[in-house]
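Whether sequence alone determines local backbone shape is best considered at the level of individual chains. We regard such an encoding as a compact summary of how the chain folds. The sequence in question and its structure tokens are set out directly beneath this paragraph.
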Amino acid sequence: MCVSGNRASRLMQLCAVLALSAALAGCVSNSQQVRPKGPDPYFVAMYGAKSEEKFPLPATDISKVEPRFLRQQVPYVTHEPPGTVVIDTENRFLYLVQGGGMALRYGIGVGKAGLEFEGEARVGRKAEWPRWTPTSDMVAREPERYGPLAGGMDPGLRNPLGPRALYLYQGNRDTLFRIHGTTEAWSIGKAVSSGCIRLFNPDIIDLYSRVPEGSRVVVLQAEPPMSQPMDAPMSTAADGSGSLSF
């Protein structure tokens, strides 16, 4: 009778353990089912509204953006020194080189085929909430679209340069290419602009705060950086305010 009683006791204990395991499994399953879908809250906060700006910026919609295009620190092996901006147009990334084999990586939108910039430049000028003026070539190419804007567009939420712009120079010549913001979040990761490098508005604000004038910029297409004369001939806008972007 004692042996039988011990067996019964052990059987009851085993049943209790199995019941508890099933209950815990149910809790885990339920928690997985109710977990909200969508971007990581960390990135949602990173790309939230910026009410402190001169023109308050609404939150950036990243719900349909591939996570790899969101700002993040990543391992990055390069011979470029810290502080260099490396733009990988093929993979749609901009890297701000840091020490220790790391870099800050930003997703970008790039120029359409035939209009891309390639080579070395420097940040010759920086501007917060810049004014934008289409180039004469842009007006000639698409007069109906750019003609009414030939006199320029004031800063604001509709301005295609966004809240910040970094102007790329070679020597003392303005290349007309910019690194700037965009209100078209869907365009990050794509080749849609007229040649410039566009970032999410929160990203260009972040990059702007980290990159001083004079910083070296290397723009790659599908090959390693090239040593290119910094004073190579480039066409410039008459008023120096033009930009190959929109």
